[in-house]
Amino acid sequence: MIVENLPALQVVLPLLAAPLCLLLSRGRPAWLVATLISWLGLAISVVLLWQVKDGSVIHYAFGGWAAPWGIEYVVDRLAAYVLLIVSLIAAVMMPYAWRSLSSEIDAHLLPLAFTLMLLCLAGLLGIVITGDAFNLFVLLEISSLSTYALISLGKDRRSLTAAYQYLIMGTIGATFFIIGVGLMYQLTGTLNMADLAERIDALEDRRTLKTAFAFITVGLALKLAMFPLHLWLPNAYTFAPSVVTAFLAATATKVALYAMIRFVYTVFGTHFAFESMHIEVLVLPLAAVGIFITSVVAVFQHDIKRMLAYSSVAQIGYMLLGIGMATVTGLTASLVHLFNHALMKGALFLALGAVCYRIGRCDIDRMAGIARDMPLTMAAFVVGGLSLIGVPLTVGFLSKWYLLSAAMELGWWPLAALVLVTSLIAVVYIGRVVEAAYFRERPAGTETVQEAPAVLLIPTWILVAANLYFGIHSSLTLGVAGDAAAHLFGAVK
Amino acid sequence: MDKNVVLVVFAKILVPFILLFALYVQFHGDFGPGGGFQAGVIFATGIILYALVQGVDRAMAVMPPAVLKPMMAIGVLLYGGVGIASMLLGGHFLDYGFLAHDPIHGQHYGILIIELGVGITVAAVMMVIFYAFMGEQN
Questions:
Q1: How confident is the model at residue A1 (pLDDT cuts 50, 70, 90)?
Q2: Average pLDDT, integer, range A399-421
Q3: What pLDDT, in 10s, does the model give residues A7-16?
Q4: Is A8 close to B72, i.e. CB distance below 8 A?
C-alpha cells in the first residue's frame, strides 16, 4: 500500500508538512519536522529510482481518475534521477538550515522560513514527477511563490528588491508557460504530457503549435535563467539567506531545466523541436555567448555569492549546450552536469554560508586570510572549486569530459575550445578567492574568528565527499543519465 | 464613521446575509455552482465589509489574526488529510470512493470535506492579506 503510493507521498509529505510547520509556530520544532520530512523524501526517491532503474515506468493516477482525464504522476528514469538530486540536496541542507537561518533572520520568521522551504521542495519535486502540463504550472507557481518569499527574508534590505525583481521576471516566465499550455490545450484538447506528445505529431505544421512552443520555451528559459534572461538570478542569489541561496542554486534552475528537457524531448519531440522549429539555432549561440560573458563577469565580482551566482548562469549554459546538440552524448552530458552542478554549487554555497555565519558578509576583502581561522570550511570551498573547474577525480571533470566528447563527436571544435577556455576562466575566479583566503593577511582591526560549527561543516563536507565519490564511482550518474538520454531519443523517434 | 449612519446600518444588515450566503455556496457546492474557493472569498468579503465600516480593530476582535494563522494551515491539512485517509483506506491519494462503504457516499464526503478545507484556507488568507494592507497604512 505504501509502496504503491510512493509517487504521491514524495510530493504530499513536504506539502502537508508545510502547514504543520506553520501551526507549530516555533522555529526548532518546525526545523525538526522539515529535516525529518526531507530525509523521508530522500528515502522515497531512492526507492523510486531503484524501482525504475531497469527502465520500467510507474504511473500513478490521482484520485483514481485514469490518465488522460485525471492528473497523473509519472516516474521514469529521468524523473527518478532528478527527484534524487532534489531530495538529496534538501536532505543535506535542512540540517544545515537551522544554525544558518537563525543567525540571518528574525526568530519569529523561522517557522515561516521552514514552511516556505518545504513548500518550495514540494513544488520542485512535483514539477519533476508530474505527467500533466497544467499540474506542472501549478507546482511551478508553488515553488516560485515560496522562493520569492524566501529570498525576501534576507537580512540585507536589498533582498526585497531582488525578490521583487524575481517576482516580476518569474511571473512573466510562468505566464508565458501557461499561455503555451493553453494554446496546446486549445489545439489538442488534452493536458496530459504523454497524450499531448501523441497528438502533436499530426499537427506539426499548425501555427498554434509553433506559437505554443515559442511561449513554453521562452517561459521556461526565464525560469532556468538562460543567458539574456538571467538578470533576476545574481541579485536573488546574492541577497537571499545563505542556505536558501545554496538550496535554490542546487535545485531550482535544475528543475526548470528538467521541465525544458521534458517539453522539448518528450512532449514536442526531437523532430518538431529540432528539425521543424530549429530550437538549436537559438539555444546554442545564446548558451555559448552566455557561458563566456557570465564567466568573465564572475571574475570581476566583489561579493563571492554574486560571483558564484554568475558562475551558475554559465554552468546552466553548459547544460543548454548539451540540450541544443540534440545527440545522446550531448543530452547525457547535460543530465550528468545537472546532477554534478547541484553537488558542486551546493558544496560551494554551503561553505560560503559557513563563512557568512562567522564574518557576516562574503566580500572578497573581508574573506582575506580567512583560511587560517576556518581551515576546514575553506578546504571544502577549494575542493568544490576544483570540481567547478573540472579537475580529474571530481564530478566536474566528468561533466566537462562528456560535454567535450559530445562537441567533438559533432566536430564542433570551437565549442570544445569554448568549454576549455571558460574552464580556465573558472580557474581565475575560484583562484581569486583561494588567493585571498589563503595568501593574504586578515584585514586590520578584525578579530580572529572560530571555525564554523559542526552542524554547518558536516553537511558541507557531505556534499564535498559526494563531489569526490561520484567523481570516481561514476556508474550511478553516468549509467542513469545515459539510459535516460537514450530513452528520450529512442522513445520519441 | 459616525457620520455615515446609512452606510453603517446597511452594512450591519448585510454582513450576516453575506456570511450565510458564503455557507450556502460552501455546502451546496456539490449540487449547484459554488465550492470552497468562492465561499471562502464571500465569507472574507463579509468580514472585510465589516472592517471597512467599523474599523479594522473591531474586525480584528471578531477574527483575530492569531486565529487566522492556524486557520490557513488547518484548511490545507484538512484537504491533504482526506487524501491521506483515502490512501490509508486502500485507494490512491484523494480517491474519495474509498472513504465510505458506498463509493458514491465516499465521493460525497470527500468533496464536501476538501471543499471545506479550501473554504477555510481561502477565507483566512483573504483576511490576512486585507489585514496586512491595512496594517501598512497605520
A1: low
A2: 91
A3: 999 999 999 9
A4: no
pLDDT of residue A493: 38
- DSSP conformation letters of A301-361: -SBHHHHHHHHHHHHHHHHHHHHHHTSHHHHHHHHHHHHHHHHHHHHHHHHHHHHHHHHSS
Chain B residue with CA closest to A7: the answer is B93
The enclosing H or E element of A59 equals strand A58-61
| Structural domains in chain A (count) | 1
Cα–Cα distance, A332 to A398 (Å, whole number): 11
Q: Which domain holds residue A316?
A: 293-493
Lowest-pLDDT range of A149-153, A345-349, B107-111: B107-111
CA distance A44 to A46: 5
Q: Is residue A78, in this structure, part of any structural domain at all?
A: no
Angle, helix A395-409 to helix A304-325, in steps of 10 degrees:
40
Number of H helices and E strands in chain A, helices first, is 20, 2
DSSP helix/strand/coil, A58: strand
Question: What's the length of chain A?
Answer: 493
Is A457 a member of any domain? yes
Q: Kindly provide the ipTM of the predicted complex, given to two decimals.
A: 0.90
Q: Give the burial string for A291-306 (b: 16+ CB within 10 Å, else e).
A: bbbbbebbbebebbbb
The grid coordinates listed for B96 are 474519495
Within a domain: A80: no
Phi-psi region of A206 (alpha: psi -120 to 50; beta: other; left: phi over 0): beta
- Closest-CA residue of B relative to A60 is B92
CA distance A275 to A256: 23
Segment B103-120 shows an average pLDDT of 90
Count CB-CB contacts under 10 A for residue A221: 24
Give dist(CA A449, CA A443) in Å, integer: 12
Any domain includes A380: yes
Instruction: Select, from the ranges A254-258, A409-413, B90-94, the one with the highest average predicted confidence (pLDDT).
Output: A254-258
Kindly determine whether residue B93 and residue A63, on different chains, have CB atoms separated by under 8 Å: yes
Nearest to A62 among B81, B94, B97 (CB): B94
Q: What is the C-alpha separation between A135 and B52, in angstroms, rounded?
A: 37
Domain residue extents for chain B = 5-137
Q: How many C-beta neighbours within 10 Å does residue B105 have?
A: 13
